[in-house]
Amino acid sequence: MLSPRGLWFLIVVILIFVVGAFLIPNYSVVPALASLALLTWFCVEWGLFQVRVNAVVARLRVSRQMLQGGRESPMLWVGRVFEVRVRVENPSAIALPFAVLEDRRPVATERTRGTNVVFASIPARGQVEIVYSLVAPAPGLLRFEGVNLRVCDRQGFFYHRRFVREAVELPVLPPLTDDEGRQRATKQFNTLPPPGIHRLRRPGSGSELLDLRDYRPGDPPKLIAWKPSARRDKLITKEFESDVPVRCRLFLDTSESVRLGPTGNTLLTRLVEVAAAVAQASAANRDLVGLTTFDETVAHGLLPARTKMHLINVLRRLSEVASLQPGVRGVPSELLTQRAFPLAHELYPELMTKRVNSMPWSRLWLPLLDRKYGWVVLAMILLSPLLLTIRGWASGVANFAAMTVPKSWPFLTKLAWFTLVFLVSIFPPATFGVLFWFTHGVRGWFGERRRKLTQRKQVASVLALQDGSGPAGVERYIHDDEAYAAQVAAFLQRHRLRCPIPLYDERGLYLYRCPGKAVVLRDALIEAVSRARDNELYVVLADLVELGDDLAPVVQAVRVARARHHHILVIVPWPSDVPPPDDHQEAPAGTRTLADKAGKGLPPGTRQDQERKKVRKKPTARNKTGGLAQLLRQTLCRQYQESFKRLRRELGRVGATVMRLNDGDPVRAVLDRLDRVRGMRSRR
Amino acid sequence: MSSDRDDTIRDVEIDDRPDGPDRTRGDVSLERSEVFALLFGDPPVRNYLVAGLAALAMIFLLLLQEGSDLGGLLIVVIGSAGLVLLWPQAPLFVLTLLTYFLLYPTGIPGEAFEKRWEIAEGHFRPADLILAFSLLIYVAAHYRLISVTWQALATEGAVRRQNEPLIRRPPVLIAPNELGILLGIGIASVFASQIVWWVANSVAIRPGETFPFVWSGAERSLRRAESPGALPPAATRFLALTGMFLFGVLLSRLVFGYWRLRSMNAAEAGMIVLDHGWGETHRERSRIENWRLWRRERTRARDRAAVKPRQGPEKPPIKTANRSTTSPPKHHNSQNPSHDPRQRAGRRTGDRP
Question: pTM for the whole thing?
Answer without folding.
Answer: 0.76
